[in-house]
Amino acid sequence: VHSLQELRRSASLATKVFVQRDYSDGTTCQFQTKFPPELESRIERQLFEETVKTLNGFYAEAEKIGGSSYLEGCLACATAYFIFLCMETHYEKVLKKISKYIQDQNEKIYAPRGLLLTDPLERGMRVIEISIYEDRCSSGSSSSGSSSSSSGGGGGGVGGR
Amino acid sequence: MTPGGGSGPMKDCEYSQISTHSSSSPMESPHKKKKSVPKRKWEVFPGRNKFFCNGRIMMARQTGVFYLTLVLILVTSGLFFAFDCPYLSEKITPAIPAIGGILFFFVMGTLLRTSFSDPGVLPRATPDEAADLERQIDIANGSSSGGYRPPPRTKEVIINGQTVKLKYCFTCKIFRPPRASHCSLCDNCVERFDHHCPWVGNCVGKRNYRFFYMFILSLSFLTVFIFAFVITHVILRSQQTGFLNALKDSPARYPFTETNSVVCFFSVWSIVGLSGFHTYLISSNQTTNEDIKGSWSNKRGKENYNPYSYGNIFTNCCAALCGPLSPSLIDRRGFIQPDTPQLAGPSNGITMYGATQSQSNMCDQDQCIQSTKFVLQAAATPLLQSEPSITSEELPLPGKTSLSGPCAALTLGQPTPPSSMPNLTSDSGLTDIIPLKEEHEGHQFLTPEEAPSPPGMLPSGSPITHSHTMHVLSLASQDSLHEDSVRGLVKLSSV
Question: Any transmembrane segments, and where (chain B) (predicted)?
Answer without folding.
Answer: 65-83, 95-112, 211-236
